[in-house]
Amino acid sequence: xxxNKVILVGRLTRDPEMRTTSSGQNVTSxxxxxxxxxxxxxGQKQEQTEFHNIVVWGRLAEIAGQYLTKGQEAFxxxxxxxxAYTGKDNVERRTTEVVAESMQLGNRPQGSxxxxxxxxxxxxxxxxxxxxxxxxxxxxxEEIPTINLDDEKDEVNLNDVPF
Length: 163
What we know:
Largest sheet: 5 strands, mixed, barrel
Structural class: mainly beta
Strand order of the largest sheet: 1-3-4-6-5
Helix content: under 10%
Distance between the termini: 47 Å
CATH superfamily: Nucleic acid-binding proteins
Number of domains: 1
Strand content: 35-45%
CATH architecture: Beta Barrel
């Protein structure tokens, strides 16, 4: 039995690069960093950072290109794939990257919110400032309407559904 499975959780090192192939397929390139910490034999804390290139295809590529931003946490699950290409200096090179099959968006970096505007290059000015979070005592419980089907004698009226 063979297994080629990768699970990565890290922070984006740059904004995603979205493009469309000549056949009309969407593809987005993402780079993330993951950290590992440990104590060496002298008890000193050590840290190592790894950088990973991730390729996302199809509808997932559109979502990644629209919602991911530099510094944001993200979860990717996929497989390793090695491909060969010819560099600008006409030298044959190989690269191994993660081909994402699923993705989950994580916390955004401090100072940004919402999706990036469409058809614009990502810049620092494209980030929308986030309002200061409320303190715990300022947060009030909001009444969420519910429907109890045991109390309903007739059919549920769609106008009563709160969404």
